[in-house]
Design brief:
This protein is an alpha/beta fold. The protein has 3 helices and 7 strands; from the N terminus they run E-H-E-E-E-E-E-H-H-E. Helix content is 28%, strand content 22%. Strands 5-2-1-6-7 form a 5-stranded parallel β-sheet. Strands 3-4 form a two-stranded antiparallel ribbon.
């Protein structure tokens, strides 16, 4: 079964995240959402559960997990999705982990989908 890693941060555009997630699941793709913390707010170690991500329109979304350096590479997923939403896209663009993941997925000829500001 194909798999997708969909990133989520505070300020992500809710529709760009939820419609993408829903469409992929309906197509038979196994999806995992990973929370990208703002570097200023990032915990020293990831707690058991990630916080609710507050979308660009104020809707809270519960991600599956925190984004960490290990375990989310192109050997684990077929597709990396980066939704837009100005604040969320800004947080993701400043993340060294996200930057490295994008490079790794492209290097391994995996798909990287960036929506709008993503």
């Amino acid at each position: 079964m194909p798999s997708a890693l969909i990133l989520l941060a505070d300020g992500t555009e809710e529709m760009e995240f939820t419609i993408t997630y829903d469409t992929l699941v309906r197509a038979g793709v196994s999806c995992t959402s990973a929370f990208v913390a703002d570097q200023a707010d990032a915990p020293k170690s990831a707690p058991v559960s990630p916080p609710l991500a507050k979308g660009s329109r104020g809707i809270n979304i519960q991600p599956d997990t925190y984004l960490e350096k290990a375990g989310f590479g192109p050997d684990k997923y077929d597709l990396l999705v980066i939704p837009g939403g100005a604040k969320g896209a800004d947080t993701m663009s400043k993340s060294a982990t996200v930057q490295q993941l994008v490079r790794d997925y492209i290097e391994k000829d995996k798909y990287v989908g960036m929506i709008c500001a993503g």
